[in-house]
Amino acid sequence: MYVLKTLIAGVLLTTSSVALASSSSTEARGETRLTQILDGRTAGPPVDCIDLHSIDSTEVVDGTAIVYHDGNRLYVNRPTMGRESLDSDDILLTRTWSPELCSIDTVRLIDRGSRFERGFVGLGQFVPYVKPKRG
Fold first, then answer.
1. Which own/partner pairs from 37-43 qualify as long-range (CB within 8 Å, at least 24 positions apart)?
2. Please, are residues 83 and 64 in contact by the beta-carbon 8 Å criterion?
3. CB atoms inside a 10 Å sphere around CB 28
4. What is the pTM for the complete model shown?
5. Would you give the end-to-end CA distance of the chain in angstroms?
6. For 48-79, what is each residue's pLDDT tens digit?
7. What pLDDT digit, counting tens, does each position of 83-97 carry?
8. CA 36 and chain centroid, separation
9. How do the domains of the chain map onto residue ranges?
10. pLDDT > 70: what percent of the chain?
């Protein structure tokens, strides 16, 4: 019985270690990708809401952030909840009750292959990034 308990504990420890390593490597790859996206841009003060009508496209950075493209400005949102669930292959489903997307909103994550909901994220503040004007 002791051998079985020890074996089970070892398997659980190994499984959790692999999951943590996978999670941290996804986060590291996400941070690298986000750095590439923001190259040459400077951050402005965070805002609570952005106008959805001005958003051209959206990009998910695995395990890290959602980048909203607004012309030459990028808004980076690092969700306060569920960020580790972000997958660049997900479809984002956002329901809002106004023309703005705000830091109190949630975004549902839909698996592109199965079309099943696989989670959600709670948005944080939006940090605008712009390229400095050359003068």
1. 37/61, 37/67, 37/74, 38/74, 38/76, 38/129, 40/131, 41/74, 41/129, 41/130, 41/131, 42/129, 42/130, 42/131, 42/132, 43/127, 43/128, 43/129
2. yes
3. 12
4. 0.80
5. 75
6. 999 999 999 999 999 999 999 999 999 999 99
7. 999 999 999 999 888
8. 15
9. 2-130
10. 81
